[in-house]
């Protein structure tokens, strides 16, 4: 199920294999076996990537629910067994250099700690923190901070992602008002309204519903949808990012439950502050 969700969110076997830290052939075999077990095709393959079939879309919702339940079981069992673990939720790009420096430094200081990573989609900016699925999260503000403690780590400018052949893609910068007639991607109903408002530049918008970074990029590529993203990330050649003027910058933050005195979390925050400050 984790393999399937990775391919469904990346819509590309190569990117999914990289995300799962495995080679592509065994991933392809696993998906083919899953399709055989289900008795239906889950993906439509093409040279540029894959798209979900109707059956695949249904399975994706169920798989996400199953994996969420499995994560909650693991957290409760580990707590009951007294295992020394730290579960970290990560939203967005796990290849951020700050994340790599943090991982290396934390392993050096705590070599005996069992680290679990929960890679989350864009619908929960707290990465499962409120549900008790993670101990600490690396994410982006703003969101509802009630009963949470937030430590800013870095500030990134934000741009608008457009098709490379869009006339606006040739501009040096844009203002949100110049995009008022465009469709913007939306997050599912129930997503933190502060988070939704930020990525819609502070006003209600209309457009396709997305959950993952690759779904956002595909919405821009296929539908000409407007998407906002932190600047500095690599994009496919078919897309371009233009700085967005009058847009508050995006903050990378570490967040944990208010009052949590776990020393492993305190150490994590200390190391994260140094790692992202480079």
How would you portray this structure in words?
This protein has 278 residues and is an alpha+beta fold. Helices cover 38% and strands 22% of the residues. Strands 4-3-5-10-6 form a 5-stranded mixed beta sheet, with helices on both faces. A 3-stranded antiparallel beta sheet has the order 8-7-9, with helices on one face. Strands 1-2 form a two-stranded antiparallel ribbon. α1 (2-10) crosses α2, α1 packs across α4 (54-81) and α5 (97-109) packs across α8 (263-276).
Brief description of this entry?
The chain is of the alpha+beta class and 278 residues long. It has helices at 2-10, 13-20, 24-38, 54-81, 97-109, 193-199, 213-223, 263-276, and strands at 43-46, 49-52, 85-91, 114-120, 136-141, 148-156, 158-163, 227-230, 239-243, 250-257. It contains 8 helices and 10 strands.
Q: Largest beta sheet: what is the strand line-up?
A: 4-3-5-10-6
Number of helices: 8
Task: Kindly state the percentage of residues in helix.
Answer: 25-40%
Q: Using only CA atoms, what is the Rg?
A: 19 Å
Shape: globular
Give me the count of strands: 10
Q: Could you state the oligomeric state of the chains shown?
A: single chain
What is the averaged pLDDT score?
A: 89
């Amino acid at each position: 199920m984790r393999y399937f969700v990775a391919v469904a969110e990346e819509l590309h076997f190569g990117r999914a294999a990289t995300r799962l830290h495995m080679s592509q052939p065994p991933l392809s075999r696993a998906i083919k076996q899953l399709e055989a077990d289900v008795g239906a095709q889950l993906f439509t393959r093409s040279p540029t990537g894959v798209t979900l079939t109707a059956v695949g879309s249904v399975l994706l919702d169920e798989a996400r629910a199953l994996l969420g339940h499995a994560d909650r079981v693991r957290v409760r069992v580990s707590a009951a067994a007294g295992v020394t673990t730290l579960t970290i939720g990560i939203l967005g790009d796990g290849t951020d250099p700050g994340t790599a420096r943090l991982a290396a430094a934390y392993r050096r200081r705590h070599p005996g700690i069992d680290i679990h990573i929960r890679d989350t989609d864009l619908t929960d900016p707290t990465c499962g923190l409120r549900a008790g699925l993670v101990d600490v999260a690396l994410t982006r503000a703003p969101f509802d901070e009630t009963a949470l403690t937030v430590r800013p780590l870095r500030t990134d400018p934000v741009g608008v992602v457009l098709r490379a052949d869009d006339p606006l893609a040739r501009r040096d910068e844009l203002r949100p008002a110049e995009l008022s007639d465009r469709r913007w991607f939306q997050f599912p109903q129930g997503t933190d309204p502060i988070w939704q408002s930020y990525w819609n530049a502070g006003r209600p918008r209309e457009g396709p519903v997305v959950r993952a970074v690759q779904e956002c990029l595909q919405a821009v590529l296929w539908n000409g949808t407007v998407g906002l993203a932190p600047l500095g990330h690599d994009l496919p050649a078919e897309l371009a990012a233009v700085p967005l003027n009058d847009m508050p910058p995006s903050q990378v933050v570490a967040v944990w439950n208010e009052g949590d005195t776990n020393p492993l979390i305190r150490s994590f925050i200390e190391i994260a502050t140094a790692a992202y400050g480079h």
